[in-house]
Amino acid sequence: MDALVEQLLSGLPAEALIVDPDVTASYAHDMAGFCEAGAPAVVVLPRTVEEVQHVMRTATALRVPVVPQGARTGLSGAANAVDGCIVLSLVKMDRILEISPVDRVAVVEPGVVNAALSRAVDEHGLYYPPDPSSWETCTIGGNIGTASGGLCCVKYGVTAEYVLGLEVVLADGRLLRTGRRTAKGVAGYDLTRLFVGSEGTLGIVVKAVLALRPRPPRQLVLAAEFPSAATACDAVCRIMERGHTPSLLELMDRTTVRAVNRMTSMGLPESTEALLLCAFDTPGAAADLAAVGELCTEAGASGVVPADDAAESELLLQARRMSLPALETVRPATMIDDVCVPRSALGAMLEGTATIAERSGLTIGVCAHAGDGNTHPVVCFDPEDPDESRRARASFDEIMALGLELGGTITGEHGVGVLKKEWLARELGEVGLEMQRGVKAAFDPLGLLNPGKLF
Amino acid sequence: MDALVEQLLSGLPAEALIVDPDVTASYAHDMAGFCEAGAPAVVVLPRTVEEVQHVMRTATALRVPVVPQGARTGLSGAANAVDGCIVLSLVKMDRILEISPVDRVAVVEPGVVNAALSRAVDEHGLYYPPDPSSWETCTIGGNIGTASGGLCCVKYGVTAEYVLGLEVVLADGRLLRTGRRTAKGVAGYDLTRLFVGSEGTLGIVVKAVLALRPRPPRQLVLAAEFPSAATACDAVCRIMERGHTPSLLELMDRTTVRAVNRMTSMGLPESTEALLLCAFDTPGAAADLAAVGELCTEAGASGVVPADDAAESELLLQARRMSLPALETVRPATMIDDVCVPRSALGAMLEGTATIAERSGLTIGVCAHAGDGNTHPVVCFDPEDPDESRRARASFDEIMALGLELGGTITGEHGVGVLKKEWLARELGEVGLEMQRGVKAAFDPLGLLNPGKLF
Prior knowledge:
Strand content of chain A: 15-25%
Oligomer: homodimer
Number of helices of chain A: 15
Structural class of chain A: alpha+beta
């Protein structure tokens, strides 16, 4: 038995360790394609904070890199193993420790599944908004690591907005408490927020205090068909400019609509160039939808169909949620981009993406959290074809370059991981990158936490 | 002419410098009482980013400490000068550079006055929520430095929620860009949020991209009288537990009510032990207020008076805004605390504060952002009386200790500054403090930025 396993076993039960290479290999990567992934030396599945501290003390003593993981549903390779690492899977720490309707907080361990939390708080009339499309399987710890978004963000923001306080095991095994469980607090630097989106490179989140909201009414959805992406984006701008607060404002392009129709029997309108979905979750939702319908018509919509009820609304949302899986069937493989631009630049972003698609000769379907300006262009290609692969990667990069040119960011909600680390440097610039590295060094001087990610 | 002034003048116009000690002395401190303040060597009032960079390069070259200042309305001594420092006042950088209704952002320089921004965005049908009580004079840069709150926070959160991106001049004069102007973005560590509330210890904010919201309807206010602080706090818990989203939920105790009546002719009910103000800024505000009124009655309110209209509502808000000035007239001096506890512990906090007041023999009036659990106990005393001063400081400290015991924080929105730096260590603990110092060292290795604050 090697020294690493021996030392890990001195503070962990045997069943918390996996050393069989056939099994550890299955923990090597998340759901991002085309990202390097090494072979873990061992996978550990701790159940307590003390066990996590033991793992980190061991890693520090033996200078072994540690890759923290949730459900590995991430799309940037941030959870990918490196050779010889300890994979630290937090999925067994899955207890909801507290739900307080008066304080409107939940206290959870990192392995709690997003949907499990959502359902648990719902029983108290409460709402945990962040809803990444993997919400049925992804964990809160993973959501915190990548600052996950979802369909709700246009009204409710991303995961970062809901993390009030954390307990974090540092690289050397010490326990750090950050933040608070109060509604407000400004005591010292906001380290809580620093950990959100840090992709496991600063510490291991072992407990989180999350803010909750009262459960809103079920949302009512309207679908609007547009003759062009430009007119749909114009409608998005009008809706936001007039002061509406939709709970969802999503766009599917023609490629996406057709892919969804091929995969399901939803019968979405195939002649549309862009389908816009807009929802409200207020008591006055019907009136809001009517006003939004008029704005869509003014912007050039060829058809506006408000859902009659919550059930019909849910069907439309299903169509939107099927977008990525459906686009994945177009060709043998996909690369999913995640560029977010200022809302006012959304039209230019979609137009530019269409030009990139045309030039590359590839299919690039786009679905977008349009209200946020957050587009997911999905580059479809055959990885067996070297030329197609090359064009796919080039298009993927050109889309990010376009996003930066338009004042946007290379990642709205999926994170950097290994997929976009060269691009992070371009977005942040030299000074920005240096300060980020300074923060990393302050928390992880030996560079053991999730090496090769972000930078 | 000394070397510092000479070097500053090499990159600044003469009128941007103040060296007359009588004048520089007037820049020595903010509005916090009983905080040490040194004598500045010079006050500089730059108008451009390049001038700020020149100041910081000079400070680094000559190893001179720099104390950044906004309008000096802070309540923790965070803007107090240290001996021989450069006071770097940002008040002349007061341009609103952009307001975009489509992107719902404003881009501003740090010296813009909060109220000036609020009025400017109002003309576009937009709303910048953070509203500290000094909003007519305080600056956005100061608000960012202290992560200011206000009356709006129970619904809209604090300044931190509205800062999307920053331009920051670092200690060595380099320019750092953080964040974004997009609705979402997760590219790298959230340095933007790290600067918010950092009290000028990490860098000089020279530009900010701020999130805006659609302007809500004017709020309608209800006043409820309670026979005890405990029953009023019970009402607060019931209101939040039932899923209401008030735009304001404030409490004034009997001492505060009487002080306001003495100062004004408002005629608030003097027999009440606690006056609760609750407001809604939704289209259905009247119905929401009726429901809240019932909850107040259930909790034991002796009287519930909804305002008839926006004008009457504004009068009630005026009474609340007069609370601190009115309490300041009770005795020659005051110390204003800022403890925030979980909402569910608000009753215990107020009860404990009353016990501390009784034991000290001093008047301690309490107004509170009750919906946030954020209390402002105001310790009234005569600084000429050494024994009274000693008891005042002891009570001020006991209130913070009580807040920590109840799971709260020593500062909900006023910051740490010099006033509470010993207490920050108590709240953060050893590991927390060490990591905070690590962050400080990464940004300001020479320790020139606002020394003696926070830590």
